[in-house]
């Protein structure tokens, strides 16, 4: 995959990692614009290629009364406005075959959720839009098995594919990142480390997913040190009151310091 083929992406010659970042879900136009503007200012200063992330719909909820979205078209239009206002590419996740063509009208990258990455029809539908496809590694899958998910995309004559590791579930209520998977999966496609989802604590008895955001810096630093091409971070200016995944999101006020540290690590790695 060639990063510079993603529409509107900047700083592709900086030799930096790239960043997929934004809120878990689109809650309103105001929140999306506020978060996008802040991230863009930071990434422009640090010369980090940036793709704004926001889910237009949340289908994998623990409880039926959990927040799922503000309306598909309304959220997708907000993603388009973010892209047009700040001249940045956008990514959103899809859950059904019919979502692929619909979302492709609004965003630049289609993301396949980890728990759906073995769904051939969904992966093929995303690939056939011609958009970049970001495949989340299933929490239940080995790094080696992601080769076949990538092949489903490339067999559709779409070479624009990414793999994102978001941890592996070895127990009932926690995620573990096996950093050996990064060089393994880089044999198949550029690899992104989803830092915040790797720190989820799902399947809590209360029906609300927990998390360990205090470990975000640790996981992110290790990801850059072990060769991740990109970093995925969900961030919000008020995680405690976010409508989805607040327990493992990074407070937006902490993002600049984290990215500055990661850029320094990346520069060190590049000179080894």
From TrEMBL:
<keyword id="KW-0963">Cytoplasm</keyword>
<dbReference type="GO" id="GO:0009103">
    <property type="term" value="P:lipopolysaccharide biosynthetic process"/>
</dbReference>
<comment type="pathway">
    <text>Bacterial outer membrane biogenesis; lipopolysaccharide biosynthesis.</text>
</comment>
<feature type="domain" description="DAHP synthetase I/KDSA">
    <location>
        <begin position="8"/>
        <end position="260"/>
    </location>
</feature>
<dbReference type="GO" id="GO:0008676">
    <property type="term" value="F:3-deoxy-8-phosphooctulonate synthase activity"/>
</dbReference>
<dbReference type="GO" id="GO:0005737">
    <property type="term" value="C:cytoplasm"/>
</dbReference>
<dbReference type="InterPro" id="IPR006218">
    <property type="entry name" value="DAHP1/KDSA"/>
</dbReference>
<keyword id="KW-0808">Transferase</keyword>
<comment type="similarity">
    <text>Belongs to the KdsA family.</text>
</comment>
<protein>
    <recommendedName>
        <fullName>3-deoxy-8-phosphooctulonate synthase</fullName>
        <ecNumber>2.5.1.55</ecNumber>
    </recommendedName>
</protein>
<dbReference type="InterPro" id="IPR013785">
    <property type="entry name" value="Aldolase_TIM"/>
</dbReference>
<dbReference type="Pfam" id="PF00793">
    <property type="entry name" value="DAHP_synth_1"/>
</dbReference>
<dbReference type="InterPro" id="IPR006269">
    <property type="entry name" value="KDO8P_synthase"/>
</dbReference>
<comment type="pathway">
    <text>Carbohydrate biosynthesis; 3-deoxy-D-manno-octulosonate biosynthesis; 3-deoxy-D-manno-octulosonate from D-ribulose 5-phosphate: step 2/3.</text>
</comment>
């Amino acid at each position: 995959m060639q990063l510079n083929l993603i529409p509107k992406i900047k700083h592709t010659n900086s030799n930096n990692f790239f960043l997929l970042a934004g809120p878990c879900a689109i809650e309103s136009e105001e929140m999306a614009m506020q978060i996008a503007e802040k991230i863009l200012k930071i990434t422009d200063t640090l010369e980090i290629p940036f793709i704004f992330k926001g889910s237009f719909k949340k289908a994998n909820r623990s409880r039926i009364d959990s927040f799922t979205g503000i309306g598909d078209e309304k959220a997708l239009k907000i993603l388009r406005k973010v892209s047009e206002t700040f001249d940045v590419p956008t990514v959103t996740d899809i859950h059904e075959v019919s979502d692929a063509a619909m979302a492709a009208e609004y965003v630049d990258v289609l993301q396949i959720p980890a728990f759906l990455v073995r769904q051939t029809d969904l992966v093929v539908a995303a690939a056939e839009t011609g958009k970049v496809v970001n495949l989340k590694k299933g929490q239940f899958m080995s790094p080696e098995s992601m080769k076949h998910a990538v092949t489903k995309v490339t067999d559709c004559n779409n070479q624009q594919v990414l793999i994102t590791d978001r941890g592996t579930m070895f127990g009932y209520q926690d995620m573990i990142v096996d950093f050996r998977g990064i060089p393994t999966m880089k044999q198949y496609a550029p690899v992104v480390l989803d830092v915040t989802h790797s720190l989820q604590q799902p399947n809590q008895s209360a029906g609300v997913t927990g998390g360990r955001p205090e470990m975000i810096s640790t996981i992110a630093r290790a990801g850059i040190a072990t060769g991740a091409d990109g970093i995925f971070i969900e961030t919000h200016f008020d995680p405690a009151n976010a409508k989805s995944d607040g327990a493992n999101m990074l407070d937006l006020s902490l993002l600049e310091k984290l990215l500055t540290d990661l850029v320094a690590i990346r520069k060190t790695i590049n000179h080894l």
